[in-house]
Amino acid sequence: MVSYIERGQPGYGAATLALFSGAFITFAVLYTTQPVMPLLSRDYGVSPAVASLSLSAATGALAVAMLFVSGLSDRFGRKRVMALSLLLSSLLCFGVAAAPSFGLLVTLRAVQGVVLAGFPSIAMTYVNEEFHPSSAAAAMGLYVSGTSVGGMTGRIVTGVLTDLYSWRLAILAIGCISLALAVWFWLRLPKPAHFTPQPVSGREMWRRFVRAIRHPALICMYGLGFLLMGGFVTMYNYISYLLVGPPYHLSQTVVGFLFLVYLTGTISSAWMGRLAQEMGRGSALRIAVVLALFGCLVTLFGALWIKLVGLAVFTFGFFGAHAVVSGWVGQLARDARAQASSLYLFFYYAGSSIVGAVGGLFWSALAWPGVVGLIAVLLLVAWAMESVVQRILLKGNPNSAS
Description:
The protein is mainly α. It has a single domain (about 10-190, about 200-395), classed as Up-down Bundle (Growth Hormone, Chain: A). It is built from 16 helices and no strands. It has helices at about 10-30, 35-45, 50, 55-75, 80-100, 100-115, 120-130, 135-165, 165-190, 200-215, 215-245, 250-255, 260-280, 280-300, 305-330, 335-395. The longest helix is centred in the last third of the chain and has 60 residues, at about 335-395.
């Protein structure tokens, strides 16, 4: 019998670090234009809402493409598709950095989103297939922590290099770093032992998607992904506009270093993964959402240091919630995990694309209080949706709620 990857056993360290690196690349590349949106507005002469398309185009394209990559991984293999996704998305950074017009930049970012779709959902599937159940939640937490480190490092590198040179060179540097890590990922990720690539017919693929949307609790998981990610991206899309303007007038370097608060996400995703095992996913999710809501409201205070504390608490809560929900999807979707992961991430990145762009309208009309109000409503709906999940699970199987 082929053994699973388990904490304390050979291969665990290499697998978790490789997945951590892949998550790092995904978030560093996907959100590379987010901290320089004010400069895109200036250089291309576009409004904040239009500048946000540099991110929304990538996340929107990724969301749609996510629905199809599960079939590619079933046919060509999990590791091969993930590695190719990371390599190509890194190379596309070079084109984005050189884009002479905003239209071309948005187009290249959309292509980048399509290519990036080959990693996130398959990585979630890989964890649920290859890791022992006792180690899967912790491994998912470490994977999610990679997304926080990638987002943080990408923003810091972008901020510093933008001030020293230009935003174009900063994006180029992110591409070079990501390319090196993508090669390392290919060399270090253990080959799947519990999955054999095989062609899947269109009819069978459709059946699997139907199974993935029949479970009412899974539908709620998809909704949670939309709400949580929509609020998170909206927060980070427009806080840079707030901080580079009056009365703060922070430089791009300082704004970049503010993303050190992502370290709280690195801690919370691993911690919430363990907490979910100890006290149940529902309880852990409620704690994470309350923390995110509290942090969001704290950013309304005027003092800069209080805003940063609120941002850190919000980030801690978001990454913890995402770690819990993404692991919950794998538990609920036992016979269509790849498709359920794809659907979850479709809604997750659709939230990023749609709410992130809509947030620009709130910023233009109501300034920062409007942005915070939008995020707070999303988090309150997420809290209510978790209660719905618990009722569904208790009704279906009293022993399945967690």
